[in-house]
Design brief:
The complex is a heterodimer of chains A (about 350) and B (about 300).
Chain A (H helix, E strand, L loop, with lengths): L5 E10 L3 H9 L4 H8 L2 E11 L4 E5 L6 H8 L7 E6 L2 E2 L5 H11 E4 L11 H5 L1 H6 L3 H14 L15 H14 L4 E5 L7 H18 L2 E6 L2 H7 L2 E6 L2 E6 L1 H6 L4 H7 L10 H4 L13 E3 L4 H10 L4 E6 L2 E7 H9 L1
Parallel strand pairs in A: 3-8, 3-9, 6-7, 7-8, 11-12
Antiparallel strand pairs in A: 1-2, 1-4, 4-5, 9-10, 12-13
Helix pairs in contact in A: 7-8
Chain B lengths: L2 H4 L6 H46 L2 H16 L2 H16 L3 H31 L1 H16 L2 H12 L3 H25 L3 H9 L4 H30 L1 H5 L7 H10 L2 H28 L10
Classes of the chains: A alpha/beta (about 350), B mainly alpha (about 300).
Chain lengths: ~350, ~300
Amino acid sequence: MSDPKIQIKNLYKIFGKAPEKALTNVQAGMSKDALREETRHVLGVDNVSLDIAPRNIQVVMGLSGSGKSTLIRHINRLIEPTAGEILVDGENVLTMDKDALRDLRRFKMSMVFQHFGLFPHRRVIENVAYGLIVQGVDETQADKRAKHWISRVGLEGYENNYPGQLSGGMRQRVGLARGLATDADILLMDEAFSALDPLIRYDMQSILIDLQKELHKTIVFITHDLDEALRIGDQIAILRDGHLVQQGSAQDIVLRPADGYIEDFIKDINRARVIKLGSLMTPLEGTPPADAPRLDAGTLLQEALMAVAQSDSNTVIVEEHGTVKGQVTTRAVIAALHG
Amino acid sequence: MWDFFTEFPSIGRRDLSQLQMGIDDGFRAFSRAYGEALEIFFSPLLHFLVWFEKLLLATPWPIILIVLSGLAWLGSRSWKITVGTFLAFAVIGYFGMWEDTMATLAIISVATFVCILLGIPLGILMAKSDRMQGAITPILDVMQTIPSFVYLIPVVMLLGIGKVPGLIAVCIYAIPPIVRLTNLGIRLVDREVLEAAEAFGASPRQKLFDVQIPLALPNIFAGVNQTIMMALAMVVIASMIGVRGLGVPVLRAISNQYLALGLMNGLAIVALAIIFDRVSQSYGKRLQAHREGFEK
């Protein structure tokens, strides 16, 4: 695996009048609630360390108040941490001077916001071109590139509308196009789809997944919606009260929850739509029965269930790229579905 | 002993008058020392005001009438307001108030211009720093509530009677709304929109001119409108210290009980106020084209 694109090391953020003093309390083991009651400081981020791989979608998930939006704002330093380090491509973001920081925001990362953060006084095309204009790209070139991204998110014909004339889903497409237009490697998405209703949210997730297949950006995606996290995340980090509870793939989270908190969290999800055959695979025992069905490791249980049920030998053979890798028994499937 | 409770313990008449005389003498010394320098400092303003008034008076009245109606049209894009403007100025002229109206128009325009020039940057400063806001707000409160006659005294002591002190008096009274509303408008800009600009690497300058001021414009414009209204309200008081215009006949009417004269000139001021108000308001509304369309 290549070097991480973004490294967060022992990050702390404490809100209040004397955060440094409160920090020593926290590092000595004071809890979030005790800190709030005794010193009136709010612990936003509590010793989070996270490596984010390039060209991946890293989801950061947590309930409201878990510090996820605070965490993402440290990556482009919209919020200054109390302690810790943030490296982007090996460069320390926290030691950057104003100009270096501005260049980082202009060229290396862009952001999509929960309530869209569009400029209401600018037309759609001017909104999308904003990052380019700030970069110093000349206007005709910026317009051309903005038009390209507007059509990529399916908004042709709305270039000259104002955001106020669009529906919520369309506005967030503008937000997404604005984020993509600068060609930054890193896209920060802060609850980008949370304000949309479920059907439109699903559409937007599909758009993002399709775009990512070809763009391969490093995306940090904040959400409080577990289904969304499991659907789009290559890696999922779960925050609780500002600290990191578990970081892993969707399979890890569902099959090997780190603690009771995460078990509670995943209780109500449709496991058949998340777990893949490959995650349940065990090595072959002897020669496989000739009539056992053969399925790809990436097959979701939901799609594999019929084949599993019909297998006389209670076994399915798992393949990757056409070569046999192992087997999955009916018993394992039922156990995984039951949780 | 009982005296202490029935009579408020004060510093005594002699001490008080000495204190007041001390302040007066101090200020007189100050105005002797710096009055001339201040006059020189304000002389460009005086020249501008005189030039503008002469321009309005020297230009043939039909041209002024057409220009004013044209400006009303450009501002409001409404036939009703444009025709109303034309008729109002025609009636004013017909009743012999043309010259006074031009003089008032001149001082109102220059005062508004000065207020915008000073008020908007001041409002921006206030929006940028809470400390600035804390320092300026009480000053604005004083400027708005202190009786205008009270600050006329030092202004006249410093600069004598004339156009410039009149202009300063008008500005002191009229500048607070534009400062306040600029500050308010910028502070009301949506936090997430501002955060978006920041996240894309906008410099403070880019944020101010591309995001904050455009989004604050409706409020800033309401401030300009209020400033014009308050400047008009000062016309009569300013005429007490030598500003020509519609206030002079009103003042004469008060001292001589000329009902008709006072009423006519008073109504001319009202007509000016209504025209300025309607034109600037509909212009302000047109600035918000993006607010049209459905909100979801």
